[in-house]
Amino acid sequence: MVKQTGRYALFQATPDSEFVKETYGGYFNVFVSAFGEEGEQWDLFRVIDGEFPCDHELEGYDGFVISGSLHDAFSEEDWIIELCSVCHKLDVMKKKILGICFGHQIICRVRGGKVGRARRGPDLGLGNITIVQDLIEPGGYFGEEVPESLSIIKCHRDEVLEPPESAKVIAFSGKCDVEIFSVEDHLLCFQGHPEYNKEILLEIIDRINKIKFIEV
């Protein structure tokens, strides 16, 4: 019997594509495969559909992941306002949050930064980002040896324009000034998608090109 080692939740801010449902059983499985470990319990909240944990349930989680989305993190849609409210509560509680793409931008918004359309235009594909090594402690986010750069899948048209005052910008690229930022030791945010693989990226590019969401 495997001992339970932690409880985590995915705040899914995008609907499952038909491809991801057929191939992986949904984005939830993609995220758990990427970040989960044996013995952990993971729960799914489709925040895009208004599904959120109750306030009294928040304490029972060790951490949260906020997914990407086709929606704007600076929007005033009801579910996005609710997501910001929940994230503010989690921040006050010092709960660990991993924000990815849209999630990265939501945490920026919650923390008082500024989000908007990417200054240098949309970014799609595999890109290299530079790690600010002086801001990373060995044994922390990247292990004992901090890499000088990382390759990561990118798929966004918005970005963090001004990081929160309390944030450490720990990675950047020629396309985006704030690729990764952290706040204290409980908030970590990526503009890119460490959970995606090439197969998922290609399907997304094809899908968003068809709806003219991002011109490629």
What does this structure look like?
It is found in: Cytoplasm, Cytosol. Belongs to the peptidase C26 family. GO terms for molecular function: peptidase activity. Pfam families: GATase. There is one protein chain. This protein is α/β, with parallel strands linked by helices. It has one domain: 3-Layer(aba) Sandwich (Rossmann fold), CATH 3.40.50. Helix content is 25%, strand content 28%. The chain has helices at residues 18-24, 27-35, 78-92, 102-110, 198-210, and strands spanning 6-11, 40-45, 63-66, 96-100, 114-117, 123-131, 149-156, 158-162, 168-172, 180-183, 187-190. The termini are far apart.
Spell the H/E element sequence: EHHEEHEHEEEEEEEH
Taking all Cα atoms into account, the compactness measure Rg is: 17 Å
Largest sheet, described in full? 9 strands, mixed
Q: What would CATH call the class?
A: Alpha Beta
Number of helices: 5
Indicate the overall shape: globular
Oligomer: single chain
Spatial strand arrangement across the major sheet? 2-1-3-4-11-10-9-6-7
What is the architecture at the second tier of CATH?
3-Layer(aba) Sandwich
Distance between the termini: 49 Å
CATH superfamily: Class I glutamine amidotransferase (GATase) domain
User: Would you tell me the structural class of the helices and strands?
Assistant: alpha/beta
Domain module count: 1
CATH topology: Rossmann fold
Number of strands: 11
Mean pLDDT: 91
Range of helix content: 10-25%
Low confidence ranges: none
How much of the residues is beta strand, in percent? 25-35%
